[in-house]
From TrEMBL:
Belongs to the peptidase S8 family. The keyword Chaperone does not apply. Residues 1-22, 36-56 are annotated as: Disordered. Residues 604-665, 666-729 form the SLH domain. It comes from Egicoccus halophilus. The active site is at 329 (charge relay system), 366 (charge relay system), 527 (charge relay system). One of its GO terms (biological process) is proteolysis. One of its GO terms (molecular function) is serine-type endopeptidase activity. Residues 37-49 have a biased composition (Low complexity). InterPro entries: Peptidase_S8/S53_dom (IPR000209), Peptidase_S8/S53_dom_sf (IPR036852), Peptidase_S8_His-AS (IPR022398), Peptidase_S8_Ser-AS (IPR023828), Peptidase_S8_subtilisin-like (IPR050131), Peptidase_S8_subtilisin-rel (IPR015500), SLH_dom (IPR001119). Keywords: Hydrolase, Protease, Serine protease. This is SLH domain-containing protein.
């Protein structure tokens, strides 16, 4: 199936092997009509295939996979494809296959005069098409061998019972009993003009069979470009007949699908390609309970899950207004009235295109359902948790309902760039979080974006499931209508809390939400527990004036404890309690840094050539140099980005005390690793004064880096020694990420104006302290002494 290498002059990449899947060339309109007409004379070589829609065939069983399309993208509303499905009825009838499709509006036999056609190539290299069309007054199905140019099977096709589609069953032997196929689906009008097709342009072809988003014979691969060579690698891939999707500029990655004869080794030879990785595709975290929305009322399913988490009135003061929830999923139908024009411009990360505001970007229904649970406006049947929040969709699932780590990482980064406040990830896979997603999650955390992730529906115990297992996410499991964890919800030490997801067995305990074609449906899964928490997060952020730093702590602290006391693998911290969460929205005391202007007014500016005058820490560095507390290196540089060691910190603190008029004792101490060290004298002075101490093994570790938590303790103890008074804190708890031995001193440092925390509202206690940052901390320490009359400004 692979063509010989050729030269792509347009791309300038030179000779490259052909590695992509080549679908059969579509016959011309005249040839297509001719082949269809020949079906009237085709004699069946086997018996008529069963009618899957007939009661007599009700026991047909096997496997199938659904492929999704958009509503509203057809050239004619008469024939607008919603899904295509390839079925294998081998459990009931060995070798029996089926081709089915659904439409966005109800159709009749007359709407199929142009037909819906499945063009395919098998993994054995044979080309066919399968037709469903109105022909001579009947709805028929036709299998055509394009290599032979003749019809090889004809049988009856059947409209679905609801009128939204049709199906045709046929012997797989007519396709050569393939182990796998690649395909595309096209709907025609009666003049054989293409009206709608799937997949979309710029996407990979359809592949079948699919088992948990893993494909047979055709390999899905992630290409890693050489640094700075992403455009070249993309051009080379296209020249090789591949379709690059899910391009992620931050990591230089994109995804491709190889033909059966394509190899990783050949892919690595393409210009600009550094490496090739196997692609572990993710699935949506919904659990199929076989629910039928037609039998469910609001009293049955629409009310219990809001009541279980004690959600506030949707018409009250707190609705999530001013907060944006990003939904990384398969799109959102923003045209639905339940969203009230609150769906912002999004992005399709698979095809690399924008999604218009308040438009229908739904491609499977999952993302719309998720968004509705989080933020649907009040209606007679469905109300979201935060009906005032805005929604921003990020589409990462292809038309087979699968997402790659590259696409998800690109979605997270896009959401962070767009300023999304809360990000919902109702998707996942088993194992540790792949590096592209993990790195994007860290960037989201640094940008103060709250990430809520579904725990997954595998019913596993103490197994990692990503991205929920990642420390940067808030992992959510599912409960049933009685508040008990559902059997399918994953259990692990990384679980943060649980929320209603439905128990997967009865309609009355499922989650009622926004369904197909403007209707409603019932779903179950951690996919729908996660947006309950996302909606609650939006309410909290509105009520607390966007205190992101407190959210994780307060979600756990206010959850209704279930299972074993405290946090446990079954329930995490417990069941979400929105009412209690919203009572804890009192803002923490805000740390404001001390003004050093008066203290440092005589300090000459620009003492060190490597400290930019525009640097945040430039004035502090100049000030501590002016006071003789910190100096530069022999080459004249200050090295503001270098980490501060425990030895250096000791000298900085000693200089602060002595230069401000204080004195320090010196006595022998049993520290085993400071003899002969450059900072030995300073360490001994601080240890003698009780400002520092060694470790349990009598070491001081002078070359170890100082953390931000340790720095606060250094400075607070130095001030308390120098002023002979204990620093006080009027209101504790400045930073939600500080606990343990240093918490009291961090609060004291914040109250004294020595630190204001990080730009995310957190303190980041384990972070290293740079020499530039230390310049600012020390300058504020001197300013404290000046402001309180313990020394005079110089």
């Amino acid at each position: 199936m692979l063509a010989q290498p050729d030269v792509d002059g347009a791309s300038g990449v030179g000779d490259v092997p052909k590695l992509g899947i080549e679908l059969p060339e579509r016959p011309s309109a005249a040839r297509l009509r001719e082949l269809r007409a020949s079906a009237s004379t085709t004699r069946h070589a086997t018996a008529q295939a069963p009618d899957p829609t007939d009661a007599s065939a009700a026991n047909l069983r096997g496997r199938a996979h659904v492929y999704n399309d958009y509503c509203g993208d057809s050239a004619s509303s008469r024939m607008d494809l919603r899904t295509a499905e390839i079925r294998d009825y081998g459990v009931s009838v060995p070798g029996l296959l089926g081709f089915a499709f659904t439409t966005c509006r109800a159709i009749s036999r007359a709407d199929l005069t142009g037909g819906v056609t499945l063009f395919l190539t098998t993994s054995a290299g044979r080309d066919f098409f399968v037709d469903v069309l109105e022909f001579e007054g009947r709805l028929v199905g036709v299998v055509v061998d394009l290599d032979l140019g003749q019809v090889v099977f004809r049988g009856d096709a059947h409209l679905s019972s609801d009128g939204h589609g049709a199906e045709f069953a046929f012997p797989g032997a007519r396709l050569g009993s393939p182990s796998a196929i690649a395909f595309e689906v096209v709907a025609f009008d009666d003049a054989t003009v293409e009206l709608d097709w799937m997949p979309e342009e710029g996407e990979r072809v359809g592949l079948w069979p699919v088992e948990s988003c893993q494909f047979v014979d055709f390999a899905t691969r992630t290409v890693v470009a050489e640094p700075g060579a992403l455009p070249l690698a993309l051009a080379a891939a296209e020249a090789a007949g591949l379709v690059p999707t899910s391009v992620h500029e931050a990591s230089g990655r994109f995804d491709v699908v190889l033909d059966v004869d394509g190899t990783d080794a050949a892919l690595r030879t393409l210009p600009g390609v550094a490496d090739v990785e196997a692609t572990e595709l993710l699935e949506q975290a919904a659990f199929d309970a076989g629910a039928d929305a037609g039998t469910v009322t609001a009293a049955d399913a629409g009310a219990w899950w809001r009541a279980q988490v004690r959600a506030p009135s949707p018409t009250g003061a707190v609705t999530g207004a001013g907060v944006t929830i990003g939904v990384i999923d398969d799109g959102v139908d923003g045209s639905r009235p339940e969203f009230g024009g609150r769906v912002d411009v999004g992005r399709d990360l698979v095809a690399g295109r924008p999604l218009a505001a308040n438009a229908n970007s739904d491609r499977g229904g999952h993302g719309t359902f998720v968004a509705g649970v989080a933020a649907a406006s009040p209606t007679a049947r469905v109300t979201g948790i935060a009906p005032g929040a805005r929604i921003r969709p990020y589409q990462v699932f292809d038309f087979a309902g699968c997402a790659s780590p590259t696409a998800v990482a690109a979605g997270i980064d896009a959401a962070v760039r767009d300023g999304v406040h809360v990000l919902n990830l109702s998707l996942g896979g088993l194992g540790r979080t792949p590096p592209p997603i993990a790195e994007a999650l860290v960037r989201a955390q640094q940008a103060a974006t709250v990430v809520i992730a579904a725990a997954g529906n595998d019913g596993l115990v103490d197994r990692p499931a990503y991205p929920a297992e990642h420390a940067s996410t808030i992992a959510v499991g599912a409960t049933d209508a009685s508040g008990v964890r559902t059997p399918y919800s994953n259990r692990a030490s990384w679980l943060d809390l649980v929320a209603p997801g439905g128990n997967g067995t009865t309609e009355a305990s499922g989650i009622l939400g926004l369904g197909e074609r403007g209707d409603y449906g019932v779903e179950n899964g951690t996919s729908f527990a996660a947006p309950v928490v996302s909606g609650a997060a939006a309410l909290y952020l509105q009520a607390s004036n966007h205190r992101v730093a407190d959210l994780r702590t307060n979600l756990g602290a206010t959850a209704s404890d279930r299972g074993a006391r405290g946090r446990d693998p079954e329930y995490g911290f417990g069941l979400l309690d929105v009412e209690k969460l919203l009572t804890t929205t009192r803002a923490r005391p805000v740390a404001s840094v001390r003004d050093i202007t008066a203290t440092c007014r005589n300090a000459a500016a620009g003492r060190f050539p490597d400290v930019a005058p525009t640097s945040t820490h430039a004035r502090g560095v100049d000030c501590v140099a002016h006071y003789g507390i910190a100096g530069g290196y022999r080459d004249g540089d200050y090295r503001p980005g270098a980490a501060v060691t425990r030895g250096q910190m000791a000298t900085f603190v000693v200089n602060t005390i002595e230069q401000s008029g204080g004195t320090l004792p010196t006595r022998p101490l049993p520290l085993t690793d400071i003899a002969g060290h450059a900072h030995e004298a300073s360490i001994r002075k601080l240890a003698s004064a009780g400002i520092v101490s060694g470790y349990a093994d009598d070491s001081y570790r002078p070359n170890a880096s100082v953390t931000r938590a340790q720095m606060a303790t250094f400075l607070v103890k130095a001030l308390e020694y120098r002023t002979d008074r204990t620093l006080t804190v009027a209101e504790a708890g400045y930073f939600s990420d500080v606990t343990g031995a240093h918490q009291s001193n961090v609060d004291k440092a914040a109250a004294a104006g020595l630190t204001g925390g990080s730009n995310t509202g957190q303190y980041l206690p384990a972070g290293q302290v740079t020499r530039g940052q230390m310049g600012s901390f020390l300058a504020r320490t001197v300013a404290y002494l000046v402001d309180h009359g313990h020394t005079r400004p110089r």
